[in-house]
Design a protein that fits this description.
The chain is an alpha+beta fold. It folds into two domains: about 1-170, Jelly Rolls (Sandwich), CATH 2.60.120.10; about 175-285, Homeodomain-like (Arc Repressor Mutant, subunit A). It has helices spanning about 1-10, 105-110, 125-140, 145-170, 180-195, 205-210, 215-225, 230-245, 255-260, 265-275, 280-285, and strands at about 15-20, 25-35, 40, 45-55, 60, 75-80, 85-90, 95-100, 120. The relative contact order is 0.12. Keywords: DNA-binding, Transcription, Transcription regulation. GO terms for molecular function: DNA-binding transcription factor activity; sequence-specific DNA binding.
């Protein structure tokens, strides 16, 4: 697959790479890279590229010099459209899992053309969960896992097209109008991150007070801003942090549970599986 070869040429050999589908005609590849500063040219092709960041990225720019920092966080997924080229400059360390899906295969799974535009820094739970399951299943390589990967790739294609339809209908664009001001959202986000640093979460009253709104108006504005509720956003950020910790072999599942604020490993395992579709132990094994 040319897109995979081009990425290897720029970033070097991946930590791992797995072929998905038939040996003679793979439907997809999944690979992980740990790399420093790089300029990655994503040329138009017949390959759909999905990138999941395993660490918070505060140093990426697109080909127009626009910072992607606020949108690319650990655990988020970016989708590069096969129809459009892009150049992404990364100015610091990165740890990413990339999934390269043959466009013809995806269109056969959809029984329709693949028309998704580029989308960056997504926390769409079905997309993240499907990509996590593809990662875990590709590493596990059990007797029935090839079929499971096919099903997950189809689910992934359907989820991306669902999101693309929302984009074309304008529902994603309208999320970012009528919400919190940029300064207010930065204050709330900083409050959330500071609380997560200590394994806690701020109350609705605390966040509303920080931006001088009533709780009702704050919840409405936050949802307009992010497309989700404060609770779901915080859970998602907690899972993002868990993914970043799970990539480090020295961390046990219990260590990660404690690090992201869960009182017991069992509670963490249940929450992670509900959000990501796989257990944290399976993700840790796949990334270690």
């Amino acid at each position: 697959m040319q897109a995979l070869e081009d990425t290897i040429e720029v970033l070097g050999q991946p930590v791992f790479v797995r072929r998905l589908g038939a040996a003679a005609e793979p439907s997809a590849y999944i690979a992980r890279w740990q790399h420093g500063a790089a300029v990655v040219d994503v040329a138009p092709s017949r390959t759909i590229r999905l990138t999941m960041s395993l660490v918070d990225g505060r140093n990426a720019e697109d080909d127009k010099g626009a910072a992607l920092a606020d949108r690319i966080r650990g655990g988020s997924v970016s989708i590069f459209s096969p129809a459009e080229g892009a150049t992404v400059e990364v100015n610091g360390a990165a740890d990413v899992v990339q999934l390269f899906v043959d466009q013809t295969y995806a269109e056969a799974a959809l029984d329709a053309p693949f028309t998704s535009p580029p989308m960056y820094g997504l926390r769409d739970d079905p997309i993240r969960a499907a990509m996590m399951r593809v990662l875990v299943t590709s590493i596990r390589n059990g007797p029935d896992d090839a079929l499971m990967v096919e099903e997950e790739l189809q689910a992934l294609a359907l989820s991306i097209e669902r999101l693309a339809r929302s984009e074309r209908a304008g529902t994603l664009r309208t999320m970012f109008h009528g919400g919190l001001s940029p300064a207010a959202f930065r204050r709330v986000r900083a409050m959330i991150e500071a609380a997560l640093d200590h394994g806690n979460s701020p109350t609705l009253a605390d966040m509303a007070r920080a931006v001088d709104l009533s709780i009702t108006h704050f919840v409405r504005a936050f949802r307009q801003q992010t497309g989700t509720t404060p609770h779901k956003y915080i859970v998602s950020r907690r899972m993002d942090r868990a993914v970043s910790l799970l990539r480090l072999k020295a961390n046990s599942v219990g260590d990660v549970a404690d690090g992201v604020g869960f009182s017991t490993p069992a509670q963490f395992v249940a929450a992670f599986r509900a959000a990501m579709g796989v257990t944290p132990g399976a993700v840790r094994d796949a990334l270690s």
